[in-house]
Amino acid sequence: MVDMAAGVAHGTLFVHFPTRDDLIAAVIEESGQRIAARIHDLARAGTTVHEILVAHLEGLAEYEAFYARLVMEGPLLPPHAQATLLGIQSAISWLLAGVAEHEMAVGAIRPMPTHLLFNTWLGLVHHYVCNRELFAPGGSVLERWGPVLIDHYEALLRPGCKGGEQ
Amino acid sequence: MTTREEAREGMTAFMVRSQGIDEAAARKAVDEMMAKLPAWAES
User: Fold this and answer.
1) A149: domain range?
2) What is the DSSP letter of B22?
3) Minimal Cα–Cα distance from B4 to chain A, Å?
4) Looking at the partner chain, which of A80, A87, A93 has a beta carbon nearest the beta carbon of B18?
5) Planar angle of CA A81, A140, A41, nearest 5 degrees
6) Interface test with B, best of A86, A92, A117 (most B CBs within 10 A)
7) A3 within some domain
């Protein structure tokens, strides 16, 4: 089926990808790099946490179905595929950490460890993405719920909100 | 110029700080990532 879609002979596929696992690994790596690059392109101009979050969801929404599978199956995938997922996460954590640490320093958001700030966001996004058929059957969960998730998360970051400072 | 080891340690430290990943696990993931980058792949 892949060979037909690619317009190449069946044997040609096996020259490049001797096993099914090799083919899957190549697809994951190629797609993962594409997502990370897209998120980076969208978010690199962001100067606030809000702009970074919006860009993150916009980038993921373009690859939502693939990303959902990658997150759900990530722990079962071989190390190189897990590194691909981590590469996507690192692309956004790099940008988010930069602006969030600045906003914490000037008091725009409350102080907290950078990793908890990032993981709270990622946990929220991944829960909705992994259960996309419950939250937005047949559609994009990030388009439907993205603005609500951003609003809720930003409310948790506001200086008046208490808990988790240590 | 940054050496391979400096880049490896820098990326590992960033993952620990920004994502809370265990240091040994982060180093392992960084090795996987660097192996795919021609400039950093060990010869």
Assistant:
1) 19-157
2) -
3) 18
4) A93
5) 60
6) A86
7) no
Whether B2 and chain A come into contact, CB under 8 Å, resolves to no
pLDDT at res. A2: 60
Distance in Å, alpha carbon of A124 to nearest chain B alpha carbon: 15
pLDDT along chain A (166 residues), means of 10: 65 70 81 86 88 94 93 88 88 92 95 96 97 97 97 93 62
- Asked if residue A39 belongs to a domain, the reply is yes
- Interface confidence, given as ipTM, is 0.80
Long-range contact pairs involving B24-33 (C-beta distance under 8 Å, separation at least 24): B28/A79, B29/A79, B29/A82, B29/A83, B29/A86, B32/A79, B32/A80, B32/A82, B32/A83, B33/A83, B33/A86, B33/A87
* Residue B4 touches chain A, beta carbons under 8 Å: no
Quick one: tokens of B4?
A: 């391979």
Task: Tell me what pLDDT residue A114 has.
Answer: 95
Q: Within a domain: residue A145?
A: yes
Count of structural domains, chain A: 1
**Confidence (pTM):** 0.84
Measured in angstroms, the CA of B13 and the nearest CA of chain A are apart by 12
Out of B20, B33, B35, whose CB is closest to A87? Answer: B33
CATH number, domain at A120?
Answer: 1.10.357.10
Q: What is the pLDDT of residue A166?
A: 56
**What tens digit of pLDDT does each residue of A10-24 get?**
667 666 677 777 777
